């Protein structure tokens, strides 16, 4: 069996291409419907210090998603996020100004603030915390 066939482009088969096109279509269709509220998963950070007071749903920050792509120091040193749930004074004004999430979520590196429901997807009433427990086996108390 060869590493590449005439149907492969850079090691991606036609079946793989079809799957990616199909998944992209599903994601687009799902995104066009009404906004869906979400439950947090283990290790997600729930942000609701200001959200519901401002009339929007709480933010569910997928920590695991970012953590598998970046080292801790990127957000917790270079971007200034404190390592304690609720201790960061994150506001939309600061994000739009390029602070906190806004350093990457600026429309060039990652989506920007026009896509509210991508972050503000939590069910009403969720409290700011790390889902799954407020202590870890790491070096500090979160």
Describe the structure.
With 142 residues, this protein is mainly alpha-helical. The model is unreliable at 1-9, 29-34 and 135-142 (pLDDT under 50). 28% of the residues lie in helices and 6% in strands. A three-stranded antiparallel beta sheet has the order 2-1-3, with no helix packed on it. The longest helix is centred in the first third of the chain and has 19 residues, at 14-32. It is built from five helices and three strands.
Give keywords:
single chain, 142 residues, mainly alpha, Cytochrome C3, 2 domains, three-stranded antiparallel beta sheet, 3 strands, 28% helix, 6% strand, disordered N terminus
Radius of gyration: 19 Å
* Annotated CATH architecture of the largest domain: Alpha-Beta Complex
| Overall strand count | 3
Can you give the mean pLDDT? 76
